[in-house]
């Protein structure tokens, strides 16, 4: 990580020190809302390797317990927390919950921020305070840019950084830079990044994995105003991704443009603190087949989102804190597929998938935190989310009844859909109750219960096409199946019980720590699928099915663990630290009795980090057990176990930092357990093959700061 230039010139906004009003000794206990034991952030060595290895911000969370990811796009992996993926995880970037504007979720929230711009990344799995957001089951991922920097009074600050990276596998190039000009009141910062790669080579000599290329440009300008106890930040951003391949999808992304404005105000008053955020974003998204795939089928999306969030923190008495909040999020979406000239199947009219659909969520919460003694603290939160959804009438490619004696399934489905009322309102309630107890100076115990709710997304509820071609264009699972929505879906309700045990060095040196978290979740009305019919026909060799979203009950249980131990810490040899994680999860549909989709098998990491003067190094072993428990309804592939050895290091000299590393040193052959299948291969040959993982890559990066 590049160290900021002119250390000491940063002006920090004063905040209310709640600990001064708490009971004696309570200040030693971190806030349950801001730092629950179930929350974890990547260490600096892991962050450096992630930035060196991947341009995807989701990779920053790769080595956290309970966290995994899936997706065929190398810029657009979707996070998974404790076996719950995508929309079941509240993914927040700069205070904004960004909804994917794509029927395949090719543009998730973390794809809109470059890893170099990330200041903090935190994942909270299991027991999530209601102040961290609603409309989710699995937890919250919170990613934030750095606040603006300001100069001392009467001074002018000019600082910046630049970084260039090359990765041999795929011939990938990345570049990023920033420039800040500020005085003690005003700050102006410009960030830019560029990422490009060709298709990557799989490990073990399996050859090139087609449809894995990408290209992306990102720009943002941030204005900061700081006056006494007040900070105002306004960010204008634009991102263009002209192409990104997806080997586990029928389509590729052929353009994605995002234009956004995001504002934040933080103020400190005698009565407490107030944080206010507001945002607006427009996304224009296009899909078709890149040259690696065959065919032509343009698909377009136009999304507009806007909203606000208010949060007030009020110290009450000597040991109590009250947090109150309100938020509103509007998601408007048009999804249409233009006709293809000369095509009988895809014409003569426009296919309207989502016609001026919207999903509006109004939420309020109240959260009470109490520090009863220096060893015992509790948190109780209540939240209500009102989710209002609607969409207009839809239309298929053709209004003809059918050809050659075959019914027009999409026409019949459109007529049936249009005949029904589309408006739906979900009234959801969340509850989180937690307690933390310091049993010993070296042992903290945190336990609690959470009731979390999530309303269906627009596609789960409103995707209406029944033809094979229409259904295979819907679905963010990478499994080669087709999907149909369900107007009668109910909100998911998850009940989670969890405990976290944290053994740690009682001294301030923090030489060792071991954290273990078992958990259990029972999800009522979990949105899963049921089979409608087979997809295979004379034009393809697909093994999958047309699946409709339905409500089932499900359960998930598992255990996460992590730890670190300082092996040595001497002036002569620097500091050597051993870190490790181990996670296991199991999910089951209680109706079909099949395994839940995309449950990561037993996996973990073991790493040795060394820091001595300007040198840092990391040796990392990634271990994944074979995946044998799968979702049989989706034909989820089984994958063998594997072990990957990665190596990285960096050296800093004055303003320059040189980083280098090798991923998958032994070029191990493996298949990604959550990656889905190679859709184009199955479509043409009938072979049901998982997506191969990336082979050996030599990575190098040069960064400079001033």
Map the helices and strands.
Elements: E1 39-40, H1 44-53, E2 67-70, E3 78-81, E4 84-85, E5 89-93, E6 96-97, E7 118-125, E8 139-145, E9 157-167, E10 172-182, E11 186-197, E12 214-227, E13 230-244, E14 252-269, E15 272-288, E16 299-316, E17 320-337, E18 351-371, E19 376-390, E20 402-403, E21 406-407, H2 409-418, E22 424-440, E23 443-454, H3 458-462, H4 468-472, E24 482-484, E25 492-504, E26 512-534, E27 545-570, E28 574-589, E29 603-612, E30 615-624, E31 642-653, E32 656-663, H5 679-685, E33 697-705
Parallel strand pairs: 5-8, 24-27
Antiparallel strand pairs: 1-7, 2-3, 3-4, 5-6, 7-8, 9-10, 9-33, 10-11, 11-12, 12-13, 13-14, 14-15, 15-16, 16-17, 17-18, 18-19, 19-22, 20-21, 22-23, 23-25, 25-26, 26-27, 27-28, 28-29, 29-30, 30-31, 31-32, 32-33
Task: Give an overview in words.
It is globular, with a radius of gyration of 25 Å. The strands form 4 sheets. It has a 22-stranded antiparallel barrel. The chain is mainly β and 706 residues long. The protein contains 5 helices and 33 strands.
Q: Characteristics of this structure?
A:
5 helices; 706 residues; 5% helix
Which structural class do the helices and strands define?
Answer: mainly beta
The best one-word shape is globular
Report the portion of residues in β strands. Answer: over 45%
* Rounded radius of gyration (Å): 25 Å
User: How would a crystallographer describe the biggest sheet?
Assistant: 22 strands, antiparallel, barrel
Unreliable residue stretches: 1-27
Into which percent range does the helicity of residues fall? Answer: under 10%
- Calculate the terminal CA-CA distance, rounded to whole Å: 14 Å
What is the arithmetic mean of pLDDT?
Answer: 92
Number of helices: 5
Structure summary, number of beta strands: 33
